Every structure is written in C-alpha cells, then in structure tokens.
Amino acid sequence: MKKIQKKYVRNYYAIAILINVVLPVLSMIYVIGNRKGEAQMGYFIIGIWGLICIFVYSIYFAIPDFNKNWEKVAGLLFPTILLSLALIKYWNFALVILLNLIMNGFFIWHLTKKTFHNNVYN
Questions:
Q1: Which of 75, 83, 86, 85 is nearest to 99 (CA)?
Q2: d(CA 108, CA 43)
Q3: What was the pLDDT predicted at 120?
Q4: Phi and psi dihedrals of 35, rounded to 5?
Q5: Number of other residues whose CB lies within 10 A of the CB of residue 91
Q6: How far apart are CA 33 and CA 39, in angstroms?
Q7: What number of CA atoms fall less than 13 Å from residue 69's CA on the CB side?
Q8: Staple 63 to which of 25, 67, 75, 121, CB 3.0 to 4.6 Å?
C-alpha cells in the first residue's frame, strides 16, 4: 500500500474505533457509573460491541493496495456493510448503521480526493 494511503487508512481506523468503541464506553460510564447488578450488563454489551468493531474495522488493512476507485469504495464500505448485516434484525441500531455509513462516505470522499490530488501533483 502506498505510504499516503497507509497514513489515511490508519487515521480512518482510529476515528472508527473512537466513534464505535471509545464514545460508547464513555457514555456507559457516564450513564451507569458505579451501579451494581443488571446495569453492569451494559458494560458487557459495549465490550462485546467494541471487540466486534475492532475486528470488523481491521478489514481496512486487509486490502494491500487501493489501486482503483472501486477498491477504495469497497475497502472502506465493507466494514459498515458487514455491521449492517449483523444489526439489520434490530431496527434500534438504524442510527448506528446510518452514522457508520456517513462516516465511511466521508472516508471514501477524503481518500479519493487526497490520493487523486497527490497523484496529479506528484
């Protein structure tokens, strides 16, 4: 993978993990706090969700080179499509799916813009 693409993909991975893991964990800490009992099930659910997101968004690194535009789109959208298929049964997660689609749409736009800009001017 080109050096510039590696940098951007690493940044996209960090943002995806921040949005899908860190923010939900901080929200759960704020909402649940130090309570005992069934409330702690939220930590378990968010922990499982975090592991799933870390694994699924690692797919960003699975494609060695994004040489064509369709590869960029496929490589960046595949994790969200995979999560969407896992969550489609639960309509409560529609907002999560929509936010991930928006986030990956921004990633695709940014990567194609930056790599095209660098290819033209280098």
A1: 83
A2: 32
A3: 47
A4: -70, 155
A5: 9
A6: 9
A7: 7
A8: 75
pTM of the prediction? 0.71
- Check residue 121 and give its pLDDT: 47
pLDDT tens digit sequence for 35-53: 777 777 878 888 888 888 8
User: How many Cα atoms within 13 Å fall on the side-chain side of residue 30?
Assistant: 6
Radius of gyration of the chain (CA): 17
**pLDDT per residue as tens, the chain (122 positions):** 577 777 888 888 888 888 888 888 888 888 777 777 777 787 888 888 888 888 888 877 776 566 666 666 777 777 777 777 777 777 777 777 788 888 888 888 888 787 665 554 44
58/39 Cα distance (integer angstroms): 30
Reported as type and span, the H/E element at residue 12 is: helix 3-17
**CB neighbour class for 32 (10 Å; exposed up to 12, middle 13-18, buried from 19):** middle
Take residue 29 and report the two structure tokens written for it: 């800490």
Contact 49, 20 (CB under 8 A): yes
Alpha carbons 54 and 60: distance in angstroms, whole number: 11
